[in-house]
Write a structure and sequence with these properties.
This protein is of the alpha+beta class. It has three helices and five strands, in the order ααβββββα.
C-alpha cells in the first residue's frame, strides 16, 4: 500500500478529507520516530523498540573474508499477537 492509498484509507475510515488524513499519517510517523527510543506502541498493531546489537564476526560475500561487524543500535517493529493472528487467519 502506498502513502497516498494509506492516506485515502485513513480519510475514508475517519470520515475526513484526504488533507486531514495526510496530516494524521504524518503526525503518527513524527510521534513514532520521536518516541521510538522509549518504545512506541500502536495498540493492536505492534511496538517500535530500540535494540542494541552486539559486535559479531561476519563474512564478506564477495571475497569470503571474515570481517568484524561493530556493535550498533537498530530499530525493530514487534508485531502484536492480535495483529499476527488476524493476518495469518486471512
Amino acid at each position: 500500500m502506498t502513502k497516498s492509498q494509506s492516506v485515502a484509507a485513513f480519510a475514508d475510515k475517519a470520515g475526513v478529507s484526504k488533507a486531514d488524513g495526510a496530516k494524521l499519517l504524518d503526525s503518527l510517523a513524527e510521534v513514532a520516530v520521536s518516541s521510538a527510543s522509549d518504545g512506541f506502541v500502536l495498540p493492536g498493531l505492534g511496538k517500535l523498540v530500540l535494540v542494541d546489537r552486539k559486535a559479531r564476526t561476519g563474512r564478506n560475500p564477495a571475497t569470503g573474508e571474515t570481517i568484524q561487524i561493530p556493535a550498533k543500535k537498530v530499530v525493530k517493529f514487534r508485531v502484536a499477537k492480535a495483529c499476527k493472528d488476524a493476518v495469518l487467519s486471512l
